[in-house]
């Protein structure tokens, strides 16, 4: 752990399986990570890498069945969210952990005004009166940069643009001053100029409020600009974890290296041809007994087929799950 | 491309596409959504023109209008010398094989009840007189070309991943040996590691078959990779049309500047030092665009004239077309500074009269 401070959120060996008619899907396989107070942890991965399912599992938002959380420990302070009863979880969701989802249109209720949706957690969790909640809602809308806040409380979601709706979602997530904010691809559905606005807003809010944030995205550019630390997921596992500058300067896992090379850049020399990661992501029908990336990896050797690599430290706060990297480290030492 | 003046394969002149708004009980025509409002550009043979802009700026509508998937509200579209703006459906039919399209969502654009070979072979049934064996041979040839294994020919679209489905869509577009392909956000629905595979395939096919692309995308980094020239649209109009390297090194239109500065770069060191132009507010509705310059409501450099007079698209430097009242001044100021030499290098396929 980088600092001595106690993590706000500490996840150990989380395992989630979906039971489907076609058999089991092992979506999250022994994922462990921690979140320090005030830190922004970026989670990168492709669709199906398990990044959203991990976050949904830890707060109990997945319907069970089909989901089945097979193991692990999710410590929020001294509560284990995985074994906590439903009432305790209800008290945590929206109060101690806030959520912002990808699509602000489908995550807001179209038949209620924006005001009533912001006030709902305030009245439920904070026991505020209607008048108090209204005042706080106005404050929140102003905080996220919505002009004419008092009037806009009476508007419905469809009367807002995409960027404005995402601001409303952020206001709702922040309503009860959460310790942790989980943002699942919050800017993916937005245009770049609107995305830039939201990123600025989040940077600003972090300075003001100082909560810890988990930011899920597939966009390496967004991560580079906003995160303190990055966790790379592939095939339902964490394959690499490092401070942001370290990850971009010295990526270790073959997947991270390839991923960074495969995206074209806006400045600098233009490549004549894009680097390609050949093949397809794995289908997770069983608990992995070998490296998930081996089929697409250029450094594959016998051990990769025999044994699923564990995460090992390769630098300060930097760890990686790869036999080849660990071998190379040993060879260099 | 060695040719002194490359041939214009696609010529677009003052293209307009309005979608009518009908209101009231009598469904009276009360207004128009001006999706495309006076767009002009040319695409040279063998080049890739990137068309970028935010959602709702009309870029997809332009792509579809070029292939006459919509009836035009005004303006001219000439493809390979033929004016197709007013042709009837019957007259268009013999021209359709020349121009094809690759769609954004490979899930929605492939018929789930048809096998791969039926999907790829359908244009051959419609437009050629090949017999079944001839079609089969051509389908297999196409599958080889786009890197699909021949053994998949009798499978259905749901059995493929997103990247492979996009390959099926590309094979279908290639079936009739088109000259011009509109790629409408062909990689937007794909994962990062798969995007590169599809883009490389498109580039290989262009080299091999001499194709001309209109590459519509909101991914500015990818457009920098694939396009020769780039057209930036805003609210149904062209803001800037420039050779790629010029645009990315030195965007002239204030919107192009803001758009490029908003793209996050996968480099934490650059991100901390970068000056970002944050635009205020949202894109106005195309049903009720602002008077004057379309960008005047959000432009950081707005002046009085912008709110009354719409700027025309002018050539402000060789090959560089910008629709802004103030760009000429900025350009002169910029030329005293360290101007990139390639800005005037004639190897780009800019217009040189």
TrEMBL record, chain A:
<dbReference type="GO" id="GO:0055085">
    <property type="term" value="P:transmembrane transport"/>
</dbReference>
<keyword id="KW-0472">Membrane</keyword>
<keyword id="KW-0547">Nucleotide-binding</keyword>
<dbReference type="InterPro" id="IPR003593">
    <property type="entry name" value="AAA+_ATPase"/>
</dbReference>
<comment type="similarity">
    <text>Belongs to the ABC transporter superfamily.</text>
</comment>
<keyword id="KW-1003">Cell membrane</keyword>
<dbReference type="InterPro" id="IPR050388">
    <property type="entry name" value="ABC_Ni/Peptide_Import"/>
</dbReference>
<keyword id="KW-0067">ATP-binding</keyword>
<dbReference type="GO" id="GO:0016887">
    <property type="term" value="F:ATP hydrolysis activity"/>
</dbReference>
<dbReference type="GO" id="GO:0015833">
    <property type="term" value="P:peptide transport"/>
</dbReference>
<dbReference type="InterPro" id="IPR013563">
    <property type="entry name" value="Oligopep_ABC_C"/>
</dbReference>
<dbReference type="InterPro" id="IPR027417">
    <property type="entry name" value="P-loop_NTPase"/>
</dbReference>
<dbReference type="InterPro" id="IPR017871">
    <property type="entry name" value="ABC_transporter-like_CS"/>
</dbReference>
<dbReference type="GO" id="GO:0005524">
    <property type="term" value="F:ATP binding"/>
</dbReference>
<dbReference type="Pfam" id="PF00005">
    <property type="entry name" value="ABC_tran"/>
</dbReference>
<feature type="domain" description="ABC transporter">
    <location>
        <begin position="9"/>
        <end position="260"/>
    </location>
</feature>
<protein>
    <submittedName>
        <fullName>ABC transporter ATP-binding protein</fullName>
    </submittedName>
</protein>
<dbReference type="Pfam" id="PF08352">
    <property type="entry name" value="oligo_HPY"/>
</dbReference>
<keyword id="KW-0813">Transport</keyword>
<dbReference type="InterPro" id="IPR003439">
    <property type="entry name" value="ABC_transporter-like_ATP-bd"/>
</dbReference>
<dbReference type="GO" id="GO:0005886">
    <property type="term" value="C:plasma membrane"/>
</dbReference>
From TrEMBL, chain B:
<dbReference type="GO" id="GO:0055085">
    <property type="term" value="P:transmembrane transport"/>
</dbReference>
<keyword id="KW-0813">Transport</keyword>
<dbReference type="GO" id="GO:0015833">
    <property type="term" value="P:peptide transport"/>
</dbReference>
<dbReference type="Pfam" id="PF08352">
    <property type="entry name" value="oligo_HPY"/>
</dbReference>
<dbReference type="InterPro" id="IPR013563">
    <property type="entry name" value="Oligopep_ABC_C"/>
</dbReference>
<dbReference type="GO" id="GO:0005886">
    <property type="term" value="C:plasma membrane"/>
</dbReference>
<dbReference type="InterPro" id="IPR017871">
    <property type="entry name" value="ABC_transporter-like_CS"/>
</dbReference>
<keyword id="KW-0547">Nucleotide-binding</keyword>
<dbReference type="InterPro" id="IPR003439">
    <property type="entry name" value="ABC_transporter-like_ATP-bd"/>
</dbReference>
<protein>
    <submittedName>
        <fullName>ABC transporter ATP-binding protein</fullName>
    </submittedName>
</protein>
<dbReference type="GO" id="GO:0016887">
    <property type="term" value="F:ATP hydrolysis activity"/>
</dbReference>
<comment type="similarity">
    <text>Belongs to the ABC transporter superfamily.</text>
</comment>
<dbReference type="InterPro" id="IPR050319">
    <property type="entry name" value="ABC_transp_ATP-bind"/>
</dbReference>
<feature type="domain" description="ABC transporter">
    <location>
        <begin position="10"/>
        <end position="260"/>
    </location>
</feature>
<dbReference type="Pfam" id="PF00005">
    <property type="entry name" value="ABC_tran"/>
</dbReference>
<dbReference type="GO" id="GO:0005524">
    <property type="term" value="F:ATP binding"/>
</dbReference>
<dbReference type="InterPro" id="IPR003593">
    <property type="entry name" value="AAA+_ATPase"/>
</dbReference>
<feature type="region of interest" description="Disordered">
    <location>
        <begin position="333"/>
        <end position="353"/>
    </location>
</feature>
<keyword id="KW-0067">ATP-binding</keyword>
<dbReference type="InterPro" id="IPR027417">
    <property type="entry name" value="P-loop_NTPase"/>
</dbReference>
């Amino acid at each position: 752990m980088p600092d001595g401070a106690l993590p706000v959120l500490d996840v150990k060996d989380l395992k989630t399986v979906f039971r489907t008619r076609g058999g089991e899907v092992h979506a999250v396989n022994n994922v462990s990570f921690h979140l320090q107070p005030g830190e922004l942890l970026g989670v990168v991965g492709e669709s199906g890498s398990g990044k959203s399912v991990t976050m949904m599992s830890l707060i109990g938002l997945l319907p069970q069945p089909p989901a089945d959380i097979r193991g692990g420990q999710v410590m929020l302070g001294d509560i284990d969210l995985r074994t906590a009863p439903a009432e305790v979880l209800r008290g945590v969701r929206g109060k101690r952990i806030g959520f912002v989802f990808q699509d602000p249109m489908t995550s807001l209720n179209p038949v209620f005004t924006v005001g009533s949706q912001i006030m709902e957690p305030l009245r439920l969790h904070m026991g505020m009166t209607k008048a108090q909640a209204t005042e706080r809602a106005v404050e929140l809308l102003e905080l996220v940069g919505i002009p004419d806040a008092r009037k806009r409380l009476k508007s419905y979601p469809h009367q807002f643009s995409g960027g404005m709706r995402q601001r409303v979602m952020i206001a709702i997530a922040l309503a009860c001053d959460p310790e942790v904010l989980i943002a699942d691809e919050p800017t993916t559905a937005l245009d770049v100029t609107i995305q830039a606005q939201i990123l600025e807003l989040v940077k600003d809010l972090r300075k003001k409020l100082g909560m810890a944030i988990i930011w899920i995205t597939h966009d390496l550019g967004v991560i580079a600009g906003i995160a303190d630390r990055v966790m790379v997921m592939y095939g339902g596992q964490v394959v690499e974890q490092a401070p942001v500058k370290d990850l971009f300067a010295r990526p270790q896992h073959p997947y991270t290296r390839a991923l960074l090379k495969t995206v074209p850049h806006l400045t600098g020399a233009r490549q004549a041809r894009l680097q390609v990661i050949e093949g397809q992501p794995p289908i997770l029908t069983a608990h992995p007994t070998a490296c998930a990336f081996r089929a697409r990896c250029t450094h594959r050797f016998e051990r990769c087929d025999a044994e699923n690599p564990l995460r090992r430290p390769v630098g300060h706060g930097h760890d990686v799950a790869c036999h080849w990297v660990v071998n190379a480290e040993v060879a260099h030492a | 491309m060695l040719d002194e003046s490359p041939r214009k394969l696609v010529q677009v002149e003052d293209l307009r596409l309005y979608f009518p708004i009908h209101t009231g009980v009598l469904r009276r025509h009360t207004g128009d959504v001006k999706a495309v409002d006076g767009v002009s550009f040319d695409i040279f043979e063998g080049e890739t023109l990137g068309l970028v802009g935010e959602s709702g700026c009309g870029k997809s509508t332009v792509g579809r209008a070029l292939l006459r998937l919509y009836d035009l509200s005004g303006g001219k579209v000439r493809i390979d010398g033929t004016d197709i703006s007013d042709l009837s459906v019957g007259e268009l039919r013999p021209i359709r094989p020349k121009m094809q399209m690759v769609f954004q969502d490979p899930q929605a654009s492939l018929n789930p009840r048809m096998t791969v070979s039926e999907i790829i072979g359908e244009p051959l049934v419609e437009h050629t007189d090949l017999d079944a064996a001839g079609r089969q041979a051509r389908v297999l040839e196409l599958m080889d070309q786009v890197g699909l294994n021949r053994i998949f020919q009798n499978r259905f679209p749901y059995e493929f991943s997103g990247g492979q489905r996009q390959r099926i869509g590309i094979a279908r577009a290639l079936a009739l040996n088109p000259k011009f392909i509109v790629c409408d956000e062909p990689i937007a629905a794909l994962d990062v590691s798969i995007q590169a595979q599809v883009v490389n395939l498109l580039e290989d096919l262009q080299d091999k078959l001499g194709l001309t692309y209109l590459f519509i995308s909101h991914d500015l980094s990818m457009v920098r990779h694939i396009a020769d020239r780039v057209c930036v649209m805003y609210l149904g109009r062209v803001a800037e049309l420039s050779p790629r390297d010029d645009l990315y090194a030195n965007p002239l239109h204030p919107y192009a500047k803001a758009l490029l500065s908003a793209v996050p770069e996968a480099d934490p060191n650059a991100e901390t030092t970068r000056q970002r132009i944050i635009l205020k507010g949202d894109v106005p509705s195309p049903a009720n665009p602002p008077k004057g310059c379309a960008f005047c409501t959000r432009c950081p450099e707005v002046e009085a004239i912008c709110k009354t007079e719409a700027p025309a698209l002018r050539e402000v430097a060789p090959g560089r077309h910008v629709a802004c009242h103030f760009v000429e001044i900025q350009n002169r100021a910029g030329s005293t500074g360290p101007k990139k030499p390639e800005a005037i290098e004639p190897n780009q396929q800019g217009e040189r009269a």
